[in-house]
Design goal:
The structure is a single chain. The radius of gyration is 19 Å and the shape is elongated. It has a five-stranded parallel β-sheet, with helices on both faces. The protein has a two-stranded antiparallel sheet with strand order 6-7. The chain is of the alpha/beta class. About 40% of the residues lie in helices and about 15% in strands. About 0% of the residues have low confidence. It has two domains: about 90 residues, no CATH class; about 110 residues, no CATH class. α6 packs across α7 and α7 packs antiparallel against α9. A hairpin with a 5-residue loop joins β6 and β7. It is built from nine helices and seven strands; from the N terminus they run βαββαβαβαββααααα.
């Protein structure tokens, strides 16, 4: 499967470097029009099985979508735009963050991509005292933040303070805007902490139970942020 990373130069460069390690990937530079509305935009793209759009202009994004290939919107423009886009090409998705995507969509090409990149999945081993002995990233974010931040965890004792620090490290490595319409650093950090705790609980139920009060509070915050509160 060939993936095209379409960018106007601001976002997507790190995703391109990471994704091309696993899939044939092409970097495609698109224009960034200064006008709010662009009529008769002609956009020539090399043929790909899946496009990931990091363009910041909605008319350019629509030009990508009109190619009738599966599209993941790495930069989104809200639910109204998504409804418009699906009227043109139903195989378009706008994940909450690029690290929230799962391989359970109706689009085979997106599912193939999301088996490797998307919602973090971990294989962990926890010692009796709650120390994280080992961690393997099974699926991680396309910006590389999952791998980078998780490499710091083995040998640390899992506590609310350590998990909060991990979330901050995800934010540090994340390339999304701090308060993005779609990809938000804080949401990315919380999603990673949640999935790490799930991996820890699967490995050691006692540690998961010890972290339950923190987990419940974090889930409330995450739900509020995803809902826009």
């Amino acid at each position: 499967m060939k993936i095209g990373i379409v960018s106007d130069g601001k976002f997507g460069d790190r995703a391109y470097e990471i994704i091309r390690e696993r899939f044939p990937t092409e970097w495609i530079l698109a224009p960034f029009p200064q006008s709010m509305v662009v009529d008769d935009l002609e956009l020539t793209l090399p043929d790909c099985d899946l496009y990931i759009s990091y363009v910041r202009h909605p008319d350019v994004a629509l030009a990508i979508i009109e190619k009738q290939k599966p599209v993941i919107l790495g930069v989104s423009f809200g639910p109204g735009f998504l409804r418009q886009a699906k009227g043109v090409n139903e195989n378009v998705i706008a994940p909450v963050t690029m690290c929230s995507l799962e391989d359970n969509t109706w689009v085979p090409a997106i599912n193939e991509y999301a088996k490797v990149f998307g919602k973090p999945s971990f294989e962990v081993k926890v010692q009796d005292d709650g120390t994280l002995e080992s961690l393997r990233v099974i699926r991680g974010s396309p910006c590389g933040s999952t791998v980078e931040a998780s490499a710091e965890l083995p040998g640390t004792r899992l506590s609310p303070e350590q998990l909060q620090h991990y979330g901050l490290r995800i934010c540090h490595f994340c390339r999304a805007p701090r308060f993005g319409k779609t990809c938000d650093k804080e949401v990315a950090g919380l999603l990673h902490v949640r999935e790490l705790i799930r991996g820890v609980t699967a490995s050691d139920a006692a540690t998961g139970e010890r972290l339950r009060p923190f987990t419940e509070e974090m889930e409330k915050i995450l739900a509020q942020k995803i809902a826009g509160g």
